[in-house]
Write a structure and sequence with these properties.
Elements (H helix, E strand, L loop, with lengths): L2 H31 L4 H21 L2 H23 L4 H22 L11
Helix pairs in contact: 1-2, 1-4, 3-4
Length: about 120
């Protein structure tokens, strides 16, 4: 990977992690107000902010890939809640957020193809 491509990937990733941190802060505010699902919001606030900090700190494509996997698993755990249960609206919102974050993380990583020396 060239230095320019690496810097471009980090800039894109920084936007993803800023959005993720904002989602975490939103969860914290909602938990503090006691609205929605306060316990779930508090747990998700911590997870989102910590995940954003760790991925931003690492700044590697592997970190973004792992982050996308975490978001995919989170989204999948919301499916049963969306289908059956009283937390349908919450679960659908979480599923949407997870989908946006997975797509953004994948875009930050790119295709994974090498474009420099030795690339095909």
């Amino acid at each position: 990977m060239t230095a320019r491509a690496s810097a471009r990937g980090r800039r894109r990733g920084t936007g993803v992690e800023a959005f993720r941190a904002a989602v975490g802060v939103g969860h914290a505010v909602r938990a503090g107000r006691g609205g929605g699902q306060p316990v779930l919001d508090a747990v998700l606030a911590v997870r989102q902010v910590v995940q954003a900090a760790l991925v931003a700190r690492a700044g590697t494509s592997d970190a973004h890939t792992v982050s996308a996997v975490v978001d995919t698993v989170h989204g999948l755990t919301m499916v049963p809640l969306a289908v059956v249960g009283r937390r349908r609206r919450f679960a659908l919102g979480q599923l949407g957020i997870a989908l946006v974050l997975v797509v953004a993380e994948c875009a930050a990583v790119g295709t994974g193809r090498r474009t420099g020396r030795g690339g095909r």
